[in-house]
């Protein structure tokens, strides 16, 4: 009887070891998948820490005098086909400072990847000069995205 109990205990120990190994492997795979997902570009939501692809927009949509505006490539878009999420004035100024350091004209940057720090809005585009910084159609709803530029992922 003692031999049977020892054999059962050994079998239970081996089963527990296999289960522990399987759980550790699954945990490592989950960590790897989560890390890889955080590096992907988001196209459906502008959540904090998401990476968004911002595309250069026509100069008439620029909120500052530097002549550049960037809109996030997200779905859905406005009725006019313009983006619903726009890079903030502060983020654009940061990008322009980087361009000055690198000797690149800000207007030559076509795309940039940014990690979302904060999203404000929705804002409603109005007739007032300060109520429509991106020159959208009156009544359009838009968001302003403060993002940290991932400048190793930029295309000129």
Rg calc: 25 Å
The number of E-state strands comes to 5
Helical fraction: 25-40%
Based on Cα principal axes, name the global outline: elongated
Largest sheet: 5 strands, mixed
First-last Cα distance: 78 Å
Low-pLDDT stretches: none
Quickly give the structural class.
alpha+beta
Number of helices: 2
Mean pLDDT: 82
Could you list some keywords that capture this structure?
156 residues, alpha+beta, five-stranded mixed beta sheet, elongated
Walkthrough of the structure:
By secondary structure, the chain is an alpha+beta fold. The chain has 2 domains: 39 residues; 105 residues. It contains 2 helices and 5 strands, in the order αβββαββ. Strands 2-1-4-5-3 form a 5-stranded mixed β-sheet. It is elongated and about 90 Å long.
Summarize this entry quickly:
The chain has helices at residues 2-39, 89-102; strands at 51-57, 69-72, 85-87, 111-124, 141-155.
Spell out the blueprint of helices and strands.
Blueprint: H1 2-39, E1 51-57, E2 69-72, E3 85-87, H2 89-102, E4 111-124, E5 141-155
Parallel strand pairs: 3-5
Antiparallel strand pairs: 1-2, 1-4, 4-5
């Amino acid at each position: 009887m003692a031999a049977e109990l020892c054999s059962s205990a050994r079998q239970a120990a081996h089963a527990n070891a296999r289960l522990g190994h399987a759980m550790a492997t699954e945990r490592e795979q989950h960590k790897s998948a989560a890390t890889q997902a955080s590096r992907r570009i988001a196209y459906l939501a502008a959540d904090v820490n998401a990476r968004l692809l911002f595309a250069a927009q026509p100069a008439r949509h620029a909120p500052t005098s530097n002549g550049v505006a960037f809109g996030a490539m997200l779905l859905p878009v406005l009725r006019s086909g313009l983006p619903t999420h726009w890079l903030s004035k502060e983020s654009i100024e940061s990008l322009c400072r980087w361009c000055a350091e690198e000797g690149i004209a800000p207007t030559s940057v076509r795309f940039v990847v940014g990690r979302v720090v904060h999203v404000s809005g929705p804002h409603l585009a109005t007739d007032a000069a300060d109520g429509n910084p991106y020159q959208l159609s009156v009544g359009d709803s838009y968001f302003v995205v403060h993002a940290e530029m991932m400048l190793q992922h930029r295309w000129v």
